[in-house]
Structure formats: C-alpha cells, structure tokens
Amino acid sequence: MGVVVATQMVVLFTIVIVGFLLRKKGTINHEFSRQLSSFVINISCPCLIISSVLTDNHPDASLILPLIALSFATYAFLIVIAFILPRYMPIDHANDGLFGFMITFGNVGFIGYPVVASIFGANAVFYASILNFPNTLLVFAIGTLFVSGNYKHVRFDPKILYSPGLIASYVSIAIVALDLSAPQPIAQIFNLLGSMTVPSALLIIGSSMAQIPLKKMLGSRGVYIMAALRLIILPYVILQTCRALGVNELISNINVIIIAMPVASFGTLFCIKYGKGEDVMAQGTFITTLLSVLTIPIVAMFL
Fold first, then answer.
1. Taking the mean position of all CA atoms in its chain, how far away is CA 92?
2. Cβ proximity of 232 and 302 under 8 Å
3. Helices 124-131 and 113-120 meet at what angle, rounded to 10?
4. Whole-angstrom Cα distance, residue 303 to residue 287?
5. 263 has which bridge partners?
6. What would the DSSP string read from start to end of 97-149?
7. CA distances from 178 to 81, 121, 185 (A)
8. Is 144 exposed, middle or buried (0-12, 13-18, 19+ CB in 10 A)?
9. CA separation for the pair 279, 267 (Å, rounded)
10. Is the distance from CB of 101 to CB of 270 less than 8 angstroms?
C-alpha cells in the first residue's frame, strides 16, 4: 500500500505545485482562490460526500454508529493531549493554545477527503465524512478556545449543524440507512460535481502557499515537534489503540489517515480574527502540509 499511496501523493502534490506556479505567474489571484474555495466548501465537497453513496454497492449501514463513537472518542483523546503536551514543548508558552489547536485539528475538508478517496475508493468518503463530525463541530468551539485563550470566546453556533458539509453527511447517512437509490442521471450529476473537489482543493492549497515568504515559513524546533506529533506519532498511537480494542480494520484505517492530515486552515483564520500568533499558525500549516506528502505514505505503511 505504501508505494501506491506514495505515487498518489506525488500526483496530488503535482497539482498543488501547479496552483503554486499559477499564483506566482498571476494566472490566478486571491479573488479566484476565494471564490473557488467557496465552491469547494459549499458545492463540490458536499456533492463528493453524497456521490460516495450513490453507487450500486452501498457502504455498510451497520458501521454508522461505531463510526460516530470512534470519531468522538478519537477527538476527546486529541483534545486532552493538546491541553497537556504543549506545556512540555520547547516553545513560547504564550502560544500553548496555538500548538494545542495544531495538534487537534487537521485539514480534512480540503486534503482528507481527496486523500481518502484516492487511497480507499469513493465509498470511503462516506465513512470519512462521519469520522469528521467532531472536527467540524468542535473546531468552532474548542478551536476558538485554543486560539483565543479565553473561555468567553467558546460558543456553539447551531448554524454549524446546517453547514453544506454536514447536510451532505445527513443525506448520505439517510441514503445508506434506508437503502435508497437515485436515477443514474442524478447520480452522475453529483459524481461530476464531486469529482471537481480534488483538483480544486489542491489548486487552492498551492495558491495559498505561493503567498507565504519562504524565510518566514522555516519554523522553529517546536513547530517540527508538533508536525511529528500530528503527522506520525499520534496517528500511530491511535492506530495501535484501535487494533488493541478490536475496531473494524477499514474504519480504523480511514480514521488514522484523517488524523494524519496537516493542520486545519481554520487556524489561520482564527488567529487573524483574535489577533494572535498568525505567523506561528501559518508556519505550522505550511510545514505540515509540505511534510504530509512524505508522511501520509509512511502512515499508510502502518495500516
């Protein structure tokens, strides 16, 4: 599997490089990336999730509840670790919350779904969307606490429950649970729109990287320790724990790949909002995204 995944990651990262070069040449700009990002979040990624169950072979409905249980247990573990470990890392401890965010939340929407689809096939995106529930729900509550460092900023916005990605998850769960089917033309529409997610998301990542000065992105020792935790160490610990508990192998493997994603892009947005540590968060996002090209194949070799 490792060689297959490594090859796939090279293919995916080539598209990132294309996005990088297009932004450097001025072929695409900030407004294009912003609009394309909105399209991915609101249209193509939800279609990718729904299209993953509009096939002749539905995912296993009996796995829905175990998926939800595993996902919340995994994020509970990550949050506890994220509150403790930064205190012992060689960093400015005023940034403990930022490192806690980077340890906990990965970039599943833009990178995780495309990688899962590439490694495990289209049906696996359904499982990944359920495993990503806690990430989507908690990033706006616990995530803002990590970044702001102030409990008064912790809140749960019910609108999150009606975001396009979660609505697509609800629809896909209903399709699987009720064993529904869709006419071929409808399935094809969702499939075509969903297939735009991977190249679009990767072009956006490359475009974003093109705007970060290289000297600013080299990072500190603490950032590389965080990267090792996020990309290799914690996924391995979670994998071994799942195996010890007898978790379904496919569910466990998809969960581990999701956890092994680079730092979530929401972190930079939160830093801008609260005026804290934008440079540190940008370094962590950039370095983990770059290193994930190497580390995701390594994690796949564990599976």
1. 26
2. no
3. 140
4. 24
5. 106
6. HHHHHHHH-B-IIIIIHHHHHHHH-TTHHHHHHHHTHHHHHHTTTHHHHHHH-
7. 38, 22, 20
8. buried
9. 11
10. yes
Question: What is the structure's pLDDT at 1?
Answer: 58
Q: Residue 199, Cβ neighbours under 10 Å: how many? A: 16
Query: For the chain, how many residues are written?
Result: 303
- For the record, the structure tokens of 134 come out as 């806690």
* Tokens 């990624």 -> residue: 45
Among 218, 220, 291, CA closest to 260: 291
Nearest-angstrom CA–CA distance, 213 and 269? 18
Q: Give the residues of the chain that fall short of pLDDT 50.
A: none
For residue 123, the one-letter residue type is: N
CA dist., res. 126 & res. 128, Å (int): 5
pLDDT at 149 (0 to 100): 77
pLDDT tens for 2-17 read 566 677 677 777 888 8
Amino acid at 155: R
* Rounded CA separation 72/100 (Å): 17
In the block, residue with structure tokens 């990688």: 115
Q: What is the DSSP string of 13-82?
A: HHHHHHHHHHHHHTSS-HHHHHHHHHHIIIIIHHHHHHHTTSSSS---GGGHHHHHHHHHHHHHHHHHHH
- Tokens for 157, please give them: 């916005």
CA 114 to centroid of chain Cα atoms? 9
Residue position matching structure tokens 């990267």: 227
Residue 47 burial (CB < 10 Å; 0-12/13-18/19+)?
buried
CB contact at 8 A, 207 and 22: yes
